[in-house]
Amino acid sequence: MFGYVVVKLSDVATVKRGVRVVKNQLSQDGKYPVFQNALAPMGYYDEYNREGEETYIISAGAAGEVGYCKGKFWAADDCLVFENLNLVDNKYLYYYLINQSEFLHRNVRKASIPRLSRDVIDRINIYLPTIERQNEIIEKLDEFSRLCNDISEGLPAEIEARQKQYEYYRDKLLTFDEMDR
Length: 181
Fold this sequence. Notes:
The termini are far apart. The strands form three sheets. The chain has a four-stranded antiparallel β-sheet. It has a three-stranded mixed β-sheet with strand order 4-3-7, with no helix packed on it. The chain has a two-stranded antiparallel sheet with strand order 1-9. α5 (131-149) crosses α6 (151-173). It is globular. The relative contact order is 0.16. By secondary structure, the protein is of the alpha+beta class. It has helices at 9-12, 90-99, 101-106, 118-122, 131-149, 151-173; strands spanning 4-8, 14-17, 32-35, 43-45, 54-58, 66-69, 74-75, 79-83, 125-129.
């Protein structure tokens, strides 16, 4: 159907560990979110070390969780990011890794602080279609994501669909044929 190659993630991207910050360096009113050991920011910092539109994986704490940040942010030391992407779009990588979440979670070392090693991530096999096909996939998944997550659009569309379904069944159930008497 569509052509693709299967490669190790390490063949198309370099996994890099974020840079440590300590809590007393953070505030709640800084400019840039800091991702450390969860998908929610642990605070805000006045500097950034990532440009945005980037995929990251949490390697400790909520190990195995995959995030994507649209704007500039600070990746702390338990946040793994991807550099030197070759033949793979960052957003495609995000969706692909989300699809691999069972594999990622299965490979988290269970300890007092759960950890996911960089080696596990490097070994992930990634199905890689052309950039054009990746962009088509991204476009479709972004649309589904927007509809599912945007209550102002998704919910009214769902309500409208259910209203039409209700009207259809109402009409069917309340339409009687003369032959049925």
